[in-house]
Amino acid sequence: MAQLTRRTTALQKTLSAAILSTRHLSTSPITVETSVPFTAHNIDPPSRSVETTPQELLTFYRDMALMRRMEIAADSLYKSKLIRGFCHLYDGQEAVAVGMEAAITKKDCIITAYRDHCIFLGRGGTLLEAFAELMGRKDGCSKGKGGSMHFYKKEGGFYGGHGIVGAQIPLGCGLAFAQKYSKDENVTFAMYGDGAANQGQLFEALNMAALWDLPAILVCENNHYGMGTAEWRAAKSPAYYKRGDYVPGLKVDGMDAFAVKQACKFAKEHALKNGPIILEMDTYRYHGHSMSDPGSTYRTRDEISGVRQERDPIERIRKLILSHDLATEKELKDTEKEVRKEVDEAIAKAKESPLPDPSELFTNVYVKGYGVELNKSLLELDLTNLSRFSVEQSLVLFSNIKLTLLVIDCISQSFGADRKELRAVLP
Amino acid sequence: MWLCSPLIHSYSSTSLSSRHRPNRHNPPPSPPPHPLTPPPRSSFSVKVACLIDLSSNLEVHCIERKTSFFFIHCDGSLTSGLNLRNSRSARLSTNAVATKQDNVTASTASKPGVTNVDETPPSKPIGNILEALREGLEEEMERDPRVCVMGEDVGHYGGSYKVTKGLATKYGDLRVLDTPIAENSFTGMAIGAAMTGLRPIVEGMNMGFLLLAFNQISNNCGMLHYTSGGQFKIPIVIRGPGGVGRQLGAEHSQRLESYFQSIPGIQMVACSTPYNAKGLMKAAIRSDNPVILFEHVLLYNLKERIPDEEYVLNLEEAEMVRPGEHVTILTYSRMRYHVMQAAKTLVNKGYDPEVIDIRSLKPFDLYTIGNSVKKTHRVVIVEECMRTGGIGASLTASINENFHDYLDAPIVCLSSQDVPTPYAGTLEEWTVVQPAQIVAAVEQLCR
């Protein structure tokens, strides 16, 4: 049951995969051209041709279909008041999440703003965790205490999920700093929107990243609207990839998963050698800014449907699959049905998940172990045994074995001022 | 007035001002040992001798105190001794304070049954808060390679207050990082780095500049552990000097503890002596929670003995500065010295104030404070925060809530005036609490 709700990385568990594997198509490479060539600033753009495999194409299709389905389901859950507060939906922008994942490993870090559901999924989050968190249940990825804007997945290298516009960019540069500090040859993708591109902290962080050659890749997901304000009304220069000035930039068609993949791969190589780079993903969101925004007061329905017809990422992959004869229409439809079923099951399971216990109100405010935790392994001694020795003897003992005597003013495992573990009680 | 410990019978003395010489005619007697209500301490608790003779206006001049005990030569000889201390073994050099050593052994008279580690040779160097912080920082950087420092001018310049002097040459530019003037982002960077497991220390050149980083400190530093359901911890230390200095102007004399105190998820501590500066710095670095360490601009040159041995203090514990019977005076940071000066006057007038340096501003050490209130039944809070919404205001509410039955009189809270700190010296003096006001308040309370 749990497996059904997991986003499968391979198609082996699905009916369509069973059919496809009989066709022995998984390994032969296919070359795909990106929709438009890359526009570059201060750098030579990568080539338009992207190598891919049928397996990858089908995976892309399934993953994007899953993400799309999840967001639509979240929409209806919000309207039935199971999801409250803010809910920012990512449908239309799935290609960015999927393409980026294909180019990197789980050791690379991604940090983004509040439109984080699909990226969470891409980083290894499960549908159950996502829906449970959206509904504020205990099984959510943040135990129901974060909400839509605070999805995190430490094992998957996903650092969230941040509500304040632009505040995640310095954090992203900090992740890159830590990667440089530990010399582990990974990169950080710090994502932000066209609205956040006007934040000062972006430029501060960019300056520092460029100064110290941090392996940071700043990804501007330009969906052309900062909430209700179109980009031409908010920014003097809407060429966000050029805003880095001395930092090279690349403009990418964000509705084309392969362009995204190519750009991210290119950017990763660049960042490891030369420091930061800006990627501007030209993308579009079908929903409004959030669920409280209809999305039609500042743009026409024609515009939305126009983009949906011409640039939809899932449609593009579908056409590619069909043109390369990798699956039939029916198979793709079956995949979609499966995905829908998966999402429905996850929602049902998430609805069954209980609300957090009232005691959870006070957990995780502080890391357990207020104050100083003794690292006993470092001391290699049990301090309680030392009471047998007088101080001089202990000094001699320690100086002999070259340990420093840790003179502690008070027992360091107190949890609260009353020396007992804080047990807060609700009235 | 001095900080007392029942273990000490000899004392060093550091006068802090040329203006107010201490009263030499009646050297106060050593205090009687007081029964400390025992919290569950490890049997290893060792108090360090730290007696400081203080007055207001904390300019430091080391003096040669002609008592029957010993000389302390400060400045030249001592600093050279301190500079030699690159490794722990070198710290045991005796050349710097040779004269002191003779006298120390002559004067040692520790209480039977308790050995005062401080009094055994080799002699302990005297350091000021700057050096204490630097020592603490260096020891922790030595101990854990994940500890790094970032801030403006911390690297090549050595720190605007020289706290990080010498560290960049020792540990390299990446570990002691000179940042551009971008508080918001470099604090954010430090928090991001902390999410992955590094233990950064962010230095605000002046605490007031950290207002620019408030968003990062509040949302990402304080709340991230909670909103991620415990997945990420932020073992960051944010430190810097704050408080009212010597005519620095309104913007550079801010007390940020009152603004930060509501942020859930952070801990705040304020250091006031070299001993607790080093201990709290180390504890803060080792803590897995975000800790904001408040230092005071005027206290950096305050000298005291720092123990040789490694020690770490408890972040949530208050310090009993002077036990007493009549009234509890709660204070922290620089106001401790004003209080101690006032306490001297009060003792001469016959009062017996109990002075507690609360040290931990968030959370309050209600255990120590509570025991004190239960004993004395009267509380005076002396703080440097503003009247409105300061630490004193929260502490008043806290004590009233928890210990109302034990109070014989309303809590008196002496805080700074609700004004921007003026430049003119006399006006500036009137914005902060002066010892005379403390004496008057205690007298009125204890009537």
TrEMBL record, chain A:
UniProt keywords, alphabetically: Oxidoreductase, Pyruvate, Thiamine pyrophosphate
EC number(s) from the headed UniProt entry: 1.2.4.1
Highest taxon of the lineage: Eukaryota
Presence of keyword Oxidoreductase: yes
Pfam families in the cross-refs: E1_dh
Domain Dehydrogenase E1 component: from-to ranges: 62-358
InterPro entries recorded: DH_E1, PDH_E1_Alpha_Subunit, Pyrv_DH_E1_asu_subgrp-y, THDP-binding
Signal peptide: none
UniProt cofactor(s): thiamine diphosphate
Catalytic activity: N(6)-[(R)-lipoyl]-L-lysyl-[protein] + pyruvate + H(+) = N(6)-[(R)-S(8)-acetyldihydrolipoyl]-L-lysyl-[protein] + CO2
NCBIfam families assigned to the protein according to its UniProt record, in alphabetical order: PDH_E1_alph_y (TIGR03182)
Role summary: The pyruvate dehydrogenase complex catalyzes the overall conversion of pyruvate to acetyl-CoA and CO(2). It contains multiple copies of three enzymatic components: pyruvate dehydrogenase (E1), dihydrolipoamide acetyltransferase (E2) and lipoamide dehydrogenase (E3).
Quaternary structure and interacting proteins, as annotated: Tetramer of 2 alpha and 2 beta subunits.
Name the record gives this protein: Pyruvate dehydrogenase E1 component subunit alpha
UniProt organism field: Rehmannia glutinosa (Chinese foxglove)
From TrEMBL, chain B:
Keyword Transport: no
Region Disordered, annotated ranges: 13-40, 101-126
Transketolase-like pyrimidine-binding domain: residues covered: 127-302
UniProt xrefs under SUPFAM superfamilies: Thiamin diphosphate-binding fold (THDP-binding), TK C-terminal domain-like
Compositional bias ranges of the Pro residues kind: 25-40
Polar residues compositional bias, start-end: 101-110
Function: The pyruvate dehydrogenase complex catalyzes the overall conversion of pyruvate to acetyl-CoA and CO(2). It contains multiple copies of three enzymatic components: pyruvate dehydrogenase (E1), dihydrolipoamide acetyltransferase (E2) and lipoamide dehydrogenase (E3).
Protein name as it appears in the record: pyruvate dehydrogenase (acetyl-transferring)
